[in-house]
Write a structure and sequence with these properties.
- With 430 residues, this protein is mainly alpha-helical.
- Helix content is 76%, strand content 3%.
- The chain contains 17 helices and two strands.
- It has a two-stranded antiparallel ribbon.
- Helix 2 runs parallel beside helix 8.
- The longest helix has 32 residues.
């Protein structure tokens, strides 16, 4: 009889607690900088153009996505602690550069380093949770809790920094010092992560099978470059031979974040210019949509562990598609609040179920590298989406990005319907 680590026990494990806190604090820093602080600081204080701000933000997404796969690979070789601490030192350096650099080049470079510093976050979190969950991949609860940390940090960062700016009469130095303190704190939290990648092994005692957690032997600190090259080549060969998923998985990963990329640049403009919603009412709208998502994530994650992912993804994609179509055509403010809450419910269904579904496709070998590869594909939608969104907004109509995102969600529903029946290739990958 096989016994897995129960989902609730995963949440209580030292690794998960440390990873949850690390994820939350990093998202507080990113949310504060990218949403509340840098756009206004670079525009109003430093007088930089919107083009420069766009390039700086694009470099942040680029650094994050380019280094996800290498950081996942590194986590399996040198461990969670060394990978995360090294990367988070880059985050600390990026905050310091933002404080002292005033030029467009300096701030763009700081954003690039910020992206590199945050790149190992999700590969490490996903790899560790997948390893702890056992062969049955009952990790919906854990995935929901991780998404709670991410969304909570992303929301708390801008809200907290906006409040601090108001209290200090827009003293950005105080805000940067607070973020610097958060960067130091998250490095200290990352230091309690396990030094090695968690592995599962089965120990057969008295007819029962128990899970054992052990750490591989510590590698040499000075590894020759030729050994590193051979290790990378061996990893790529094993990934090609063990990753036997349906090719539809790859566009599905891209589409999942492409929707968010379509919405993120224009949602504020649309609510203010087309729906004529005041800033205070807009904050309530965000709380209504985001709050219901955060509240629902954990219970939905538990239900995913119990009933599986298919029903939640089918319902979530279809509900999101219908809600976004409605959002693009309805202007009644009370109805808009209801639609936004429906979008929040749909994402509460999608996020833990989607990550759990993807986890079932990842073989035990090279988890970190494959998670990094998958997350890079998924994150690339956030780079392309805003560009397409701007073109739709400028050259077609203001509701066009929302209609486009609804179409993509409907497409995801169809793709997932196929994947749920045939998640793997019909023949082994070569």
């Amino acid at each position: 009889m096989q016994t897995d680590i129960k989902p609730v026990k995963i949440l209580r494990s030292p690794f998960f607690i440390a990873m949850w806190l690390t994820l939350f604090l990093v998202e507080v820093i990113k949310g504060a900088l990218l949403v509340a602080v840098l756009p206004v600081y670079m525009d109003n204080i430093l007088g930089l153009s919107a083009g420069v701000i766009g390039v700086a933000f694009a470099l942040q997404y680029l650094g994050d996505n380019l280094f996800r796969a290498p950081s996942g690979w590194a986590a399996e070789r040198i461990g969670f602690r060394a990978t995360m601490v090294t990367a988070l030192i880059c985050t600390l350096i990026a905050v310091l550069m933002i404080i002292f650099f005033k030029s467009a080049f300096g701030l763009a470079l700081a954003c690039l380093i910020l992206g590199v510093g945050t790149s190992p976050l999700w590969p490490c979190a996903m790899t560790g949770v997948t390893a702890l969950s056992g062969p049955q991949n009952k990790n919906g609860t854990a995935m929901g809790a991780l998404e709670m940390a991410a969304l909570g940090g992303t929301g708390l960062g801008p809200i907290g920094m906006n409040w601090l700016l108001e209290r200090t009469d827009h003293d950005y130095r105080t805000v940067f010092l607070v973020l610097l303190g958060c960067a130091v704190l998250v490095i200290l939290v990352a230091m309690i992560l396990p030094g090695r990648v968690v592995l599962e092994e089965q120990q057969h005692t008295g007819g029962e099978t128990k899970k054992a957690v052990k750490y591989p032997p510590k590698p040499h600190l000075l590894t020759p470059l030729i050994r590193l090259k051979n290790s990378v080549q061996g990893t790529l060969q094993r990934v090609r031979s063990t990753l036997n998923v349906n090719p539809l998985v790859y566009p599905a990963l891209f589409m999942q974040s492409f929707v968010i990329g379509l919405l993120s640049p224009v949602i504020t403009l649309y609510t203010r210019t087309d729906l004529h919603i005041s800033p205070n009412l807009y904050s309530l709208l965000l709380i209504a949509g985001g709050g219901i998502t955060v509240i629902a994530l954990l219970p939905v994650g538990k239900m995913v562990d119990r009933f599986g992912t298919s029903i939640f993804l089918h319902m979530g994609f279809l509900l999101a598609s219908a809600s976004l179509f409605a959002f693009a055509s309805i202007t009644s403010i009370p109805v808009v609040f209801g639609i936004v809450m429906m979008v929040g419910v749909s994402y509460a269904m999608i996020l833990p179920a989607w990550n759990t579904f993807v986890a079932t496709l990842i073989p035990k070998g090279e988890r970190g590298a494959i998670w990094g590869f998958f997350l890079t594909l998924q994150g690339s939608g956030m780079v392309v989406g805003p560009i397409v969104s701007g073109l739709l907004w400028d050259h077609i109509s203001h509701p066009a990005p929302f209609i486009g995102s609804a179409v993509v969600m409907a497409g995801l529903a169809v793709v997932h319907f196929v994947l749920s029946r045939r998640p793997y290739r019909t023949a082994p990958a070569k």
